[in-house]
Amino acid sequence: MKRPVITLLTDFGLADHYVGAMKGTILSICPDAQLVDISHEIAPYAIAEAAYTLSQAWTCFPPGTVHLAVVDPGVGTARRPILVEAAGHHFVAPDNGVLTMVYDAVPDHEALEITASRFFGRPVSRTFHGRDIFAPVAAHLANGLAPDEFGNRVGDPLRPGFSKPTSTGPKTWAATILKVDRFGNLITNLHSESWQRLAAEPFEMRVGTCLVTRMASNYGEMEPGDPFVIMGSGGFLEVSLNQGSAANATGVRSGDRVELRLL
Amino acid sequence: MKRPVITLLTDFGLADHYVGAMKGTILSICPDAQLVDISHEIAPYAIAEAAYTLSQAWTCFPPGTVHLAVVDPGVGTARRPILVEAAGHHFVAPDNGVLTMVYDAVPDHEALEITASRFFGRPVSRTFHGRDIFAPVAAHLANGLAPDEFGNRVGDPLRPGFSKPTSTGPKTWAATILKVDRFGNLITNLHSESWQRLAAEPFEMRVGTCLVTRMASNYGEMEPGDPFVIMGSGGFLEVSLNQGSAANATGVRSGDRVELRLL
Amino acid sequence: MKRPVITLLTDFGLADHYVGAMKGTILSICPDAQLVDISHEIAPYAIAEAAYTLSQAWTCFPPGTVHLAVVDPGVGTARRPILVEAAGHHFVAPDNGVLTMVYDAVPDHEALEITASRFFGRPVSRTFHGRDIFAPVAAHLANGLAPDEFGNRVGDPLRPGFSKPTSTGPKTWAATILKVDRFGNLITNLHSESWQRLAAEPFEMRVGTCLVTRMASNYGEMEPGDPFVIMGSGGFLEVSLNQGSAANATGVRSGDRVELRLL
Questions:
Q1: How far is CA A101 from CA A54, A109, B36, B259, C145, in A?
Q2: Interface test with B, best of C6, C32, C39, C42 (most B CBs within 10 A)
Q3: Best mutation site among C8, C23, C30 for testing chain A: the one with the most A CBs within 10 Å?
């Protein structure tokens, strides 16, 4: 008998009791769960960063895994809790776009709104749905309950635009910084496969206080101190600096907009 | 067969080998343990913060869980190691007050002093009882050993005063900041249920450099920049700031004292 | 049936998806693994720090444990991936010295080069061998595959000199700081047992901007503010400060060199 895997992704940090409380709730319902942290250090309320981080990890897990993604600036408002099935995985999250990149990767996903309050903690607090709604639903799913026990299908989960750049003119695009990694690299939403031509065509990318005009194929070929564009390991173009932090050099942060122009 | 759950709460941080060494010790004795971190980011030696953090998490776990709480400024001195049973849970900790809020929540708890050195690592170091005493005792408990194998009952575990405010006059109280959360909210030891009247009665709370005079029912109703009191999700009054850190605004830290006066 | 234990030690940090991706990869191959983090907060590329941290933790785990150590500045270059057996434990790591202190502790260890690419993820990325090579090999080992399935024995794993001081004259030695712990203590590579005489003999240790001339047997006997040498819990001499950070006082960091002279 394989133990069911439940992953956790939040912006709760590790100093407080929140993650422990969610895990205790899960184990009270599904004692056999194999609990795996993706990250709890998502910047507070940074939905795009959470979506990117989840997109880089979930495909490594076995089918049947339940992924909990609780980055939830709208907790206590009318935003829906949702349950999504995609490629044999289950996702439990607030319907705020944190699963956008799952929808991009698996077009034939199915989403339902979680309404079956008989599975929720009692009482449901105003501020901690991670413990009171999302953790118990994930645990019951891991126990083998069918998704349609939790609510009805919905066709319109929220898909904010951050996962793809926006065309703003014949040769210009507005892109978004999905995440700043621990080395200060700026991960954009420009998919590497779609933008390979930047290696050959002249371009300008306005990144905060800097104008970036070169694409590198590896770090070593660039001078320290000059920001450049490189294909990152996550499948997106990254703005990087040899021996330095591109975030510090440009003043740009997670969620910020950068402008790309082909010359 | 359910796997026994052991939770860990320490001030060891995650950069060093300490938590890993404790977990290896546990798994050498109880290979089937389900290990769950509550937090390892308690401020060094901050017993009140550890007590509060534990109090918010342990009740989410299933009965039978063993909770290890190793925040231990007195390691190497004569302070006792203790084992506490409360509401079907077991707690293993130094006898320094870190379990105070468990005693508050479960008046009919039972405590015993851990003396059975046959269960300890050999030799017991002067500085790392987490690995040499507390981890092995927790693991043997999780294996099903009866608590009275570890020592004799004691009636006087240490109960420092931090879990409740002190009356300092007919209309004045001294309260303690149990914890500063990651957003800079100051969690007091003023139980929300006992102090609901602050919503209606005029009061002054001296919090470091600030005088707080308003209670809010939600964040949005207050101006950015003005500290206020609010009922926190943990059951205690918190001093908060809309869009800011109350800790920074007031200069107050975990363990500090604040003064409340009814007008 | 005992669940196989796999420990993880990296410099990936906990904010990004890297550790989660490795764990998902492991569980896809070995669903029953008991995963334990040693640390993911090793300073980027700090091989000596990783070697020290691993040395303090692995001996606490039961025989049969698989230890993954991925601190890998040479990823993408020709450095070999290796598999080491020592004292009934298995170690999977890049061959860059991160296992040096395992070799010191277990002289009759055996090492082999990992070449069996049929176990690797496909395609193997240039930058994330933790996910694509080391995690799958560890998982297959935990499943019970014999080490010689993964490659051929090698007799020359890399052993950088950082684990022992170097004699630089009749009464002088160059030592290395293996790690700065969270309190700012500087852990040297001077083994306590070999250097007990510093308690009795006059000496000078040049540590960054400070000259240290005293050995203490406990913290309390020293004045706040004066750095001193003390036998640390990890078996090595440490440079410490009563109520302060020796790292801040001396300006010394992980990997730096200090000079010892007997007078």
A1: 8, 11, 29, 49, 36
A2: C39
A3: C23
C54 to chain B, any CB pair closer than 8 A? The answer is: yes
CA dihedral A19, A20, A21, A25 (to 10 degrees): 100
> 3-class DSSP state for residue B237?
strand
Beta-carbon separation of C21 and A183 below 8 A: no
A196: number of Cβ within 10 Å? 13
Contact C125 A183 (CB under 8 A): no
Count of residues in chain B: 263
Distance from CA of C118 to the nearest CA of B (A): 31
Q: What is the mean pLDDT of chain A?
A: 94
Q: How many helices (H) and strands (E) does chain A have?
A: 6, 16
Cβ separation of A21 and B60 shorter than 8 Å?
yes
**Which one-letter DSSP state was computed for residue B47?**
H
- A13 touches C: beta carbon within 8 Å: no
| Cα radius of gyration (chain A) | 20
Which residues of chain A are within 8 Å of residue B9 when distances are taken between CB atoms?
Answer: 20
* Contact (CB<8Å) B20/C5: no
ipTM: 0.93
Tell me the two tokens of residue A199: 């290696």
Tell me the pLDDT tens digit for each residue of B39-74.
999 998 899 999 999 999 999 999 999 999 999 988
Asked if A8 and A92 count as a contact pair (C-beta separation under 8 A), the reply is no
Two tokens at C50?
Answer: 């990783």
Query: Which residue in B has a C-alpha nearest to residue C56's C-alpha?
Result: B17
Could you say which of A56, A60, A179 has the minimum Cβ distance to residue C25?
A60
Any C CB within 8 A of B40 CB: no
* Dihedral pair phi/psi, residue A252, rounded to 5°: -95, 145
In this model, does residue C261 exceed pLDDT 90?
yes
**Which chains share 3+ C-beta pairs under 8 angstroms with A?**
B, C
pLDDT tens column, B8-35: 999 999 999 999 999 999 999 999 999 9
pLDDT of B92 above 90: yes
Query: What residues of chain C lie within 8 A of the CB of B25, using their CB?
Result: 60
Q: What is the DSSP letter of A250?
A: H
Q: Over 90: is that where the pLDDT of C98 sits? A: yes
**B2 contact A CB<8A:** yes
CA distance linking residue C100 with residue C238, whole number of Å: 20
Q: How would you classify the pairing of strands B257-262 and B203-207?
A: antiparallel
Arithmetic mean of pLDDT, A194-208: 94
> Residue B111: is its pLDDT beyond 70?
yes
Tokens 């040096």 locate to C100
Gap between the Cα atoms of B167 and B177, Å rounded = 16
Q: Which residue has the tokens 């700043």?
A: A180
Q: Which residue of chain B comes nearest to A128, CA vs CA?
A: B233
Confidence (pTM): 0.95
The token duo for C89 is 């434990």
Check whether A78 has a pLDDT greater than 80: yes
- What A138-141 contacts at long range (C-beta under 8 Å, 24+ apart), as own/partner pairs, is A138/A6, A138/A26, A138/A66, A138/A68, A138/A90, A138/A92, A139/A6, A139/A25, A139/A26, A139/A27, A139/A28, A139/A29, A139/A30, A139/A33, A140/A29, A140/A30, A141/A66, A141/A83, A141/A90, A141/A92
Q: How far apart are CA C214 and CA C227, in angstroms?
A: 8
Answer yes or no: are the C-beta atoms of B68 and B9 closer than 8 Å: yes
Non-local CB neighbours of B239 within 8 Å, separated by 6+ positions: B185, B186, B188, B205, B207, B212, B227, B228, B229, B246, B250, B252, B258
In 3-state terms, what secondary structure has residue A204?
Answer: strand
CA distances from B42 to A15, B47, B131, B179 (A): 6, 9, 18, 9
Tens digits of residue pLDDT in A205-216 = 999 999 999 998
